[in-house]
Amino acid sequence: MCTGSSSDSNSNSNSNGWSRAPGMVLKTLVVIGGAVLLKRLTKSTTRWDHARSVAQSLSGEKFSREQASKDPDNYFNLRWLSCPAAEMVDGSKVLYIEQAFWRTPHKPFRQRFYMVKPCPKEMKCDVEVSTYAIRDAEEYKNFCDRPKDQRPQAEEVIGDIAEHLTTIYVKRCERGKRCFYEGSTPPDGFPNSWNAAAYCTSELAVLKNNEIHTWDRGYDDDGNQVWGVKGGPYEFKPAPASSFVDMFSPLNFPPQSIEKRIEGSFVLQE
After folding, report:
1. pTM of the entire predicted model
2. Which of 19, 23, 32, 137 is 20 to 30 A away from residue 169, measured at CA?
3. Dmax over Cα atoms in the chain, in whole Å?
4. Which residues cross the membrane (predicted)?
């Protein structure tokens, strides 16, 4: 009986041990899973994350066709094309950006470098988007349309970054707003002498589906607007890959007075 009693005791002990094991494993998994989930939920988005997001949204091919079709007297059907061109030592992204009429994409009337990086910690913004002139703009025409081995390489790009023109200070949009990011230059803008201007201002907004809104304006010493559209920003939207645009649409054939209209609404040269 002693043997039998000992056997029964061991059996009960083993049984209780196995019955507790699954519960312990489950609790451990719950604790680990909760810790991982909490870490993911509490992980803050860094300013570098914001900078990468803004740079990605600025990149690609976009058009203002929809806006031009609604208000052809004030907006043109323009093509916005941008792509990564280089990366600075500190991680700042350099984008090449050009704008042209939809019908003549190989003849851009505006070419710039954008440098995208986080705002300094002491500033109340997330991302800086700075615009620079290009030392030899002719060499960069249709940069994004070319194979990578036929473009100026990163070292050349960095060497061709010329005069600083403007900087837009961008913040993450508040909840409930239509945009993801928005920002502007300081109220007093940056020096600009084109078309009798004394200074210029710029605004930028990033919306869903990589849509971007840009609004550049020039003012004289008295605060009168001397160039740039007055009704609101240009709205550039990515064109669906499957969409077909009528090449013979009047929107794609600027009238003979196009130069004068551009001078009144869009800057060719700063």
Report:
1. 0.75
2. 137
3. 114
4. none
User: How far is Cα 116 from Cα 96, in angstroms, rounded to an integer?
Assistant: 11
- Give me the residues paired with residue 16 across strands: none
How crowded is the C-beta side of 35, counted as CA atoms within 13 Å?
Answer: 6
Instruction: Read off the tokens for 78.
Output: 């323009």
Task: Kindly state the tokens that stand for 52.
Answer: 């990468």
Q: Which residue has the tokens 């091919």?
A: 61
Tokens of 209: 């589906």
Question: What are the percentages of helix, strand and coil residues in the chain, rounded to 5?
Answer: 35, 30, 35
| Cα within 13 Å of Cα(247), Cβ side | 3
> pLDDT for 51-80, tens place per residue?
999 999 999 999 999 999 999 999 999 999
User: In angstroms, rounded to a whole number, what is the distance separating the alpha carbons of residues 256 and 162?
Assistant: 33
4-46 per-position pLDDT tens digit: 444 444 444 454 554 555 555 555 544 455 444 444 444 577 9
Q: Is the CB of residue 220 less than 8 Å from the CB of residue 241?
A: no
